[in-house]
Amino acid sequence: MIIRRANEYEINHLFQWSLSLTEELSAGYMESNLHMTHDMVSKVLSHGGYYLIAQHGWEVMGWILLGFDQNFYKNNPVGFLYELYVFPPYRKNGVGKILMKEAMDQLKQAGMKSVQLNVFAGNSAKNMYEKLGFKEVTMLMEKEL
């Protein structure tokens, strides 16, 4: 398995996959929305973010979208992991963990002192994030009216 930056051709495919996987990535909270997904990805990419892909032979096993943001509460720059996805046949084999570690290493090399991510309630990846040292900072709560 190799981890590398996605090229332009792959970025277009990753965007399409992200769009079709929105519901799964949000643990059922969001529906697929072309404009919202396009806006989010475009903003991340235009501010220095990029995709890393895990590849085995010619197969893409998964990807992570990383970038740079501002910590709203501390008003300092922070690395941010926007999206992590591993295709089902490759899950439970450490692919997500390897992508996470490579992304964090690259953010550290870029001068980031911390990294953040959002995870939806019910997303099974939360356990992996906690094992990698992530801790809850805030909890968004919602009530339907």
From TrEMBL:
Q: Which UniProt keywords apply?
A: Acyltransferase, Transferase
Kindly indicate whether the keyword Transcription regulation belongs to this entry. no
Short name of any one Pfam family annotated for the protein:
Acetyltransf_1
Molecular function as annotated in GO? acyltransferase activity, transferring groups other than amino-acyl groups
Lineage, top-rank taxon, reads Bacteria
- Cell membrane keyword on record: no
The N-acetyltransferase domain extends over 1-145
Q: Which InterPro entries match?
A: Acyl_CoA_acyltransferase, GNAT_dom, YpeA/RimI_acetyltransf
| Name the UniProt record assigns to this protein | Acetyltransferase
Organism of provenance: Schinkia azotoformans LMG 9581
